[in-house]
Amino acid sequence: MKMHVGVNVTDLERSIEFYARVFNSEPVKVKPDYAKFLLDDPGLNFTLNLKNEVSGNQVGHFGFQVENQEEVLQHKDRLEKLGFFAREEMDVTCCYATQDKFWVTDPDGNEWEFFYTKGDVETMATHSTCCATTPSKIEIKNSPCC
Do both 67 and 101 map to the same domain? Predict the structure, then answer.
């Protein structure tokens, strides 16, 4: 079984380039108004659907839960080397857990979290950004993409 996520985008070419880098995989199907990525790890059918306008980010964020802190840092390093700005949050309390994580933002403002859960805690975080990110302008360093 694979999870399916379909995301509406305003610039298909930029979004394909962004997600190919984030997923470290090329799309299996590309049409003038559509692209599909099929990932084995994690099992994901991820589609991009071109729309003239994308308004009102209806999704809080997307994410990948990884097995350990080393994997968090490997993905962060890989994406920063590709020129993406990664916002790091290490040893934070969020969603009733202590986590190590970082975030990247796609061309339409959707935020992606790569995180490792170190352990459960009894309280929700008190800071306002926990699991409820606010999309901001994309920050990309030295990248032809996006």
Answer: yes
Q: What is the pLDDT of residues 42-96, one digit of tens each?
A: 899 899 989 887 666 556 678 888 999 999 999 999 999 999 988 899 998 887 7
Tell me the whole-structure pTM to 2 decimals: 0.68
Rounded Cα distance between 56 and 27, Å, is 26
Alpha-carbon gap, residue 69 to 10, rounded angstroms = 34
134 and 78: one domain? yes
The answer to whether residue 146 sits within a structural domain is no
Note whether 18 and 86 are same-domain residues: no
